[in-house]
Amino acid sequence: MSNLIRLIFVFLILILLTFIYKKLNNQLIKKIFGFGTLIPPAKGEEYNPDINTKNWDLHKNRLIKFGRSQYKGLTFFVSTEDKIYYLSEDGNRVYC
Length: 96
Known about the structure:
Blueprint lengths: L1 H32 L8 H5 L9 H11 L1 E4 L2 E5 L5 E4 L5 E3 L1
């Protein structure tokens, strides 16, 4: 009877080691062949004015920090007179 218990114990340990190996192997494969996130993290939006946002406060902060920001599909700029504008389809400045 004790041999049967030892055999079951060894079998369970082998199953456990197999699961651990598969998990570590999958993580390694994801690191090597995986792609980064396609949607930038929220913190990345704060430091990149070229990422579109719908957050008004974030838009204002990026205008102050970088002099430009993309908001709801339009890129806004800050002029030398500290006026905010965007470019029309014709390339003319449209001040807000």
